[in-house]
Structures are given as structure tokens and as C-alpha cells.
Amino acid sequence: MPATGDGRASAAAARLGAADAADTAHRAGTGTNTPTTAAAGRPAAGRPVAQRAKAAAETGAPRSARPDGAREPAPIPHPRTTPSERGEPSDEAPYRLLVVADAGSGDVSLIESLVAESGARVELHRAGGIEEAAALLAPVPMVARRTRQRPVDFNCVLLDLAAPAHGTQGGPAAEHFPSDGLDGLRELRRRAPHVALVVLTDAAGAELGAAAVAAGAQDFLVKRETDGPLLARALRYAVERKRADESQRRLVEAELRGQENARLQRHLLPTPLLDGAGLAFTRRYRPGRRRALLGGDFYDAVRTDDGTVHVVIGDVCGHGPDEAALGVALRIAWRTLVFAGLTGQELLTTLQHVLEHERRSDEIFATLCMLVLVPGAETVGADPADGTAVGVTAADGAAGTLPVETVRLFLAGHPAPLLLGPDGPPRLLPADQAGPALGLLPCDDGLAAWPAVELELRPGWSLLLYTDGLVEGRVGAGSRRLGQDGLIELIADHHATGLTRGRLVDSALAEVEELNGGALTDDVAVLLLERNPVPALMG
């Protein structure tokens, strides 16, 4: 505001200077840890900008008027960031600074005058030594928060590297840290690792300040070479750098945890044991949880010593890590029971007991499909006259003949597999004797039973096992689901083009996701088991 020429500005400035001097004199005897916004040392800067502006407004003086005629320093602008958990200073809250310095050295008065010169709103707190500062920075335990006063949440610590260990309150003689002069810094970092630190050195200790930054401080200042604006910028930079360091640390920790979880989940997926089975085995697994490698679906396939191949696929209801862990437990239990010689009703009954003991609530259940493939003794060949299949004995088996195999199917509330043959469209295996899902009904009193359906598999067969996530995908933008009928048509189209093994499964999954308009929300597991005259392949 331009001067009016009537003397009001100069009179107001005189009154402001008198008020500053009175306020400074009033605080001359302030205690060690009493918060204040400025201190004596420079009469023209006795109070922060906001207080001097308020006094000037009350007396009619412009904000730029000062007793010495100098221009009022502009306040340091605050970055437009969201306040952090440590109370990032804003236009409403003062900047909380803890000064750790020897009270008898005069450095505290120097810092207070620099803060006043900076024009920033700073709430000063003092500590005469490292132990006193560590006590102020230490978090209050939960059990003591009701009885103790809430501690000050400091934005930054300004540490004089010459500060003693205990200050004047620790004993008759202040104990200074020996060694390289950085022991006090290391102690504060150990006691308060999440607080931004700026160190203060003398002119001869510039190299020590650089060493302090290398040891963990965010910045350093040299005494007698620092003015108010430089101090304000250094404090602001220290807080922002500390926040960036903390964000980077949390990001690295999250990445490491993600890598560890990925390795753990990857090793929890099964390795089928089908050596000598003469089968091509393709599996695809896609959990519905974002960034997860493991869901509630599970599968496994093993070949026992008698040549029997056992295959299972299942689905634990729900989504999340608990369901994924339960699926792993069921899969491991299933493999253990198979190698222990159990099968059929006995195996499924025992597996339900495992589920009942491992689940977190009685509402959790699991669907399951189990195949037991028994190699047959009879072989079939092709009649050279009409090409029809004719029976021959194993003793008469020659090159080009394949056995007729028997498969026993057990369903526990699970979708029936698809049978793909060399001729004719895919068809569902019968599911009229399916039993309830595991965990729905008690099995000790006979309410839950899972009878076997025995089928013959002719040469050239393929079996597609899947979980319900594959058939519950949507078709278009409406509410229509793909369903088993839609899956049959889709697989038939892809199979008719000559696709087999992994290419057949991948192309089918791609079309299901395309019909759904994106990735499927439910866990999906797909197994394709094919009899192959060449050595077994895994896909």
C-alpha cells in the first residue's frame, strides 16, 4: 500500500517495533523446552510474519512496514502435497522443529534469530543433548497413551554435531560424543529413524557435514554461513527428501515382499508326477485375485506304481489368501492319500475331514472332480478292409495298436469333464451320480456319498477338466453366461481346426475372455489330458 504522507505508517511501525521489543524481553527467561516462534538476537525480527502482520493491521500500518525501513521477507511457500502422517506443515500449522544443541554455546540463540529472519512459521523446541532429544522423539507405548501427554510430532530435527550426550541436565559435566563426531547422529537415527535430520557444523567442519549426510542426515549447514531463507529451504528440503526416502524404502520392501510371495505361490503349485504314463498333460491356472499367482482352485496328477493315473481338480468357495491356502492343503492331502493307497469314497471322506479341520468357518466348502485312469489289457486295431475297430489281445498287440482304457469318475458338486474324441463333437461325461460338494453334508453317517461312474475310453481320447470360473464368464454386455453348452460349442470349433494340447487350451481361454469383455473375475483352472503314443508331454 503506498504511503499516505500523514505519518500513520511511521507511527504504526514505531508501535510495532516497541511491541516486538516488549515481546522479546518477556520471553528472555523461557525454559529449555518451551515452544516459541522466535527469540531475541535481532530486534527487527522478534516475531513471525503472521504476528507482525496482525499487529500492523490492528494499528493501521501496512504489512511491509518495518522499523528499519527494510522490505518484509516473503514467507517460504509450502509445497502442494498431502500432509504426511508426521504432520507436514501447512498454512494453518506451524513447522515443528527440534533443535539439539548445547544450551550454553549460544548456538540456540543463533538458530532462533535465523528462524525469525526466514519469515517461516516455525515452532521451536529445544533439547540440550542427545538423550533428551531421543526422549522427546520416542513414540509413546499404547498402554501409556492414556496417562501421558501426547508427544510433539516434529517435522524435522536440527542437530548441532557438537551437542553433548546428556546436556546440562545429565550431570555436572556434559558428556560429548567421542570418535568421529557422528555418534550423536547415529544415535538419533537409531532411536528415531523416521525423522528428517539436518546437522549444523562450524566453518572448519564442512567435511564433517558431508560425512554426516553420507551417514544418514538429509542436509547440513555451516554456522555463521547460514541466513534465514537458507535455513528454511534446508529444513523444507530435508523433510521432502526424508519423505521421498521413506516412500522409496516402502516401495522396495513391497517389491521384495511381492517377489517372495510370488516364489512361495509358484512353489505351491503342483508338479504332476506322470513319468511313464504316456499322457500329454496341459494345465493352465489363472487366479481371479489381482497380482496373485495362487487362488482357491487346485489340481494335481500322479501315477502310482501299478500304472494307475489319478487326476484331481477342485475349487474352494470364495476368493482370497485363506481360500488359496485351503486349496493347497487339500491338494497336498489328496496326493498323500493317493500314495497311501486310498481311492474313491474312502479318499473323499478323509479329504472332507481335512477340509472340516482346516477351514475358517462352517460355510466353506469345496467342489472336486477326480479321475482314476486304469490301463486296460485289451487292445484294438484297425481292420484293413473297412477301418472299423476290432479287438485283439495284448499278446497279439502289434505296432499301431492301442489299449482300451477304463476311467472311474468321481464328482463332488463339480462340473463334469468334456470328452473329446477323434470323431464326433465333444460331450460331457455323465454327472447323474454326482455327490455333494466337500463340507456341505456330514459323511460319517452316510449322508454324503460319492459313487463312481465307470467309463471306457477309446483310442484317441482327450479329457478336458475345468473349474466353474471358465463357464461362468459372461457373453456380451448382458447377464448371459457362457455355461457348459457354450463351452461345448466353443471347444468343438477350436478342436475342429486341428488345435491340440496347449494351443487348444490357450485359444479357448482367449475366446472366453473376449466374450467376457476382459479377464475373468473368478479363479480358472483348466486341465487337458490326452492319450499319446509318444512319451508324455507337459504343457
UniProtKB/TrEMBL annotation:
Keywords: Hydrolase, Phosphoprotein. PROSITE patterns: RESPONSE_REGULATORY. Residues 97-238 form the Response regulatory domain. It comes from the Bacteria. The modification 4-aspartylphosphate is found at D160. Residues 1-90 are annotated as: Disordered. InterPro entries: Bact_Sigma-Reg, CheY-like_superfamily, PPM-type-like_dom_sf, PPM-type_phosphatase-like_dom, Sig_transdc_resp-reg_receiver. Residues 1-53 have a biased composition (Low complexity). It holds the Pfam family SpoIIE. Signal peptide: none annotated. This is Fused response regulator/phosphatase. It comes from Kitasatospora arboriphila. The lineage of its organism: Bacteria, Bacillati, Actinomycetota, Actinomycetes, Kitasatosporales.
